């Protein structure tokens, strides 16, 4: 990888001074394009999302039987969209900014099976792998009832294979739980950020947890190396996987159906703004891709990162993508938002999606904790710190006149806007741990 000449780079991109100073920043990318112009750079299309959606449907009977909390939606791993009007008032009071439009929360924090957004991509990739192995072995065909995958025959079959992944916690949770359920031998390489209870929960499912004192990048590299030694081991590559990305992308069509059912209109006069917490980028990137395919140019996606881990903002803003890490600038990548503690962005997502992501901002850990407490107080909803990263987004969008002008977002349109904050995790945090989070929020 090229050497980074920080002084020259900073001269060219003065915003980096603020990143280095750990200031909260917001940057709307002036180079975004329409979906039509941007889509060819993604290299995936509507048919790929449909394929992922169909695959998940085939697994419906299996998921329903293995995880009764998915039975409510016939084996679909999906979360609610809810209004948070009291939080909206609090945010307006706190920031002295009016937020025109409606404020809603997408509760991926409460997705079945693993209680985070990783229950979309992570689980989907393991299911894809399992289906391929079983079909190639002549044990399964697409028209079969997949609930038979829970039988001893299949568990024995899958136990010949292993799965490995590097994670800050939540991806490991998703992949560990679903892999162990199918009978795979599974190893999760956990970065130093990973919470103790997540490791304990995985071990109780029979997952092999390997712990590192270093950050996510190191955990992924070690996982990749270990997997290379074993031809029967499948490594789930969070930094580059198109499969993970498509698992996340299915969310777009699902949100559109949920909006239709609630009579929420998204069109030229009713824009939708979606605020997505970003770590390596696969989750928010995949969801943003799905949303763009579902709502076209009327949806505007904005990524949120901790001030100590602004890897995607850095990669897209400088155009260096995974060629630069926050550590190259002397930023430490240490944050209470363990789901977002990533120093180097995905090499795939930024390049594929940069034209279709309106903007990026950072926020401090203190701000995440404050918002965590507020949301608990006024809406009774409990999230982990990472999941609050999207909450300041509506203020940034409401305040930036240049952005409004460039996108022709008139006051009239903004009054009819829907702001959707993507809550990415927290549904399975143990009560003692949640009490500690809440204690830090005051
Ligand atoms: C993983 C994660 C994210 C971000 O997803 P990436 O694919 O890493 O960008 C956001 N919030 C939580 C809680 C997560 O676990």
Automatic annotation (TrEMBL):
PROSITE patterns: DEHYDRATASE_SER_THR. It comes from Photobacterium galatheae. The modification N6-(pyridoxal phosphate)lysine is found at residue 118. The gene is dsdA. Gene3D superfamilies: 3.40.50.1100. The keyword Lyase applies. InterPro entries: D_Ser_am_lyase, Ser/Thr_Dehydratase, Ser/Thr_deHydtase_PyrdxlP-BS, TrpB-like_PALP, TrpB-like_PALP_sf. This is Probable D-serine dehydratase. Belongs to the serine/threonine dehydratase family. DsdA subfamily. Residues 97-394 form the Tryptophan synthase beta chain-like PALP domain. Keywords: Lyase, Pyridoxal phosphate.
């Amino acid at each position: 990888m090229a050497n980074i000449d920080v002084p020259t780079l900073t001269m060219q991109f003065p915003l980096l001074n603020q990143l280095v100073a750990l200031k909260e920043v917001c940057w709307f990318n002036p180079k975004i394009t329409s979906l039509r112009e941007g889509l060819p750079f993604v290299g995936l299309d509507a048919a790929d999302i449909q394929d992922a959606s169909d695959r998940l449907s085939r697994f419906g009977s299996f998921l329903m039987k293995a995880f009764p909390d998915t039975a409510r939606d016939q084996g679909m791993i999906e979360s609610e969209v809810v209004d948070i009007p009291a939080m909206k008032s609090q945010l307006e009071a706190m920031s002295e900014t009016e937020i025109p439009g409606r404020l809603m929360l997408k509760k991926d924090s409460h997705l079945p099976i693993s209680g985070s957004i990783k229950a979309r991509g992570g689980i989907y990739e393991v299911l894809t792998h399992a289906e391929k192995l079983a079909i190639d072995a002549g044990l399964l065909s697409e028209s079969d009832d997949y609930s038979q995958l829970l039988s001893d025959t299949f568990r024995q079959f899958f136990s010949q294979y292993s799965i490995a992944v590097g994670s800050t916690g939540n991806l490991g949770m998703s992949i560990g739980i679903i892999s162990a359920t199918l009978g795979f031998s599974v190893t999760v390489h956990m970065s130093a950020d990973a919470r103790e209870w997540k490791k304990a929960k995985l071990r109780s499912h029979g997952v092999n947890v390997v712990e590192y004192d270093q950050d996510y990048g190191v955990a992924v590299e070690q996982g990749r190396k270990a997997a290379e030694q074993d031809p029967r081991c499948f490594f789930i590559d969070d930094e580059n996987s198109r499969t993970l990305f498509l698992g996340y992308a299915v969310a777009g069509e699902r949100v559109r159906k949920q909006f239709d059912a609630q009579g929420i209109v998204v069109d030229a006069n009713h824009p939708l703004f979606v605020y997505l917490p970003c770590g390596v980028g696969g989750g928010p990137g995949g969801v943003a891709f799905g949303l763009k395919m579902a709502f076209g140019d009327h949806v505007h996606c904005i990524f949120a990162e901790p001030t100590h881990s602004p890897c995607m903002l850095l990669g897209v803003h400088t155009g260096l993508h995974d060629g630069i890490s926050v550590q190259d600038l002397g930023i430490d990548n240490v944050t209470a938002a363990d789901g977002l503690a990533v120093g180097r962005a995905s090499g795939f997502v930024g390049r594929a999606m940069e034209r279709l992501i309106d903007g990026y901002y950072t926020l401090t850990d203190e701000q995440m904790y404050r918002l965590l407490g507020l949301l608990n107080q006024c809406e009774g909803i409990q999230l982990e710190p990472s999941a609050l990263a999207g909450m300041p987004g509506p203020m940034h969008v409401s305040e930036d006149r240049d952005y409004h002008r460039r996108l022709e977002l008139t006051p009239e349109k903004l009054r009819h806007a829907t702001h959707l904050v993507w809550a990415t995790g927290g549904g399975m945090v143990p009560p003692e741990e949640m009490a500690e989070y809440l204690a830090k929020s005051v």
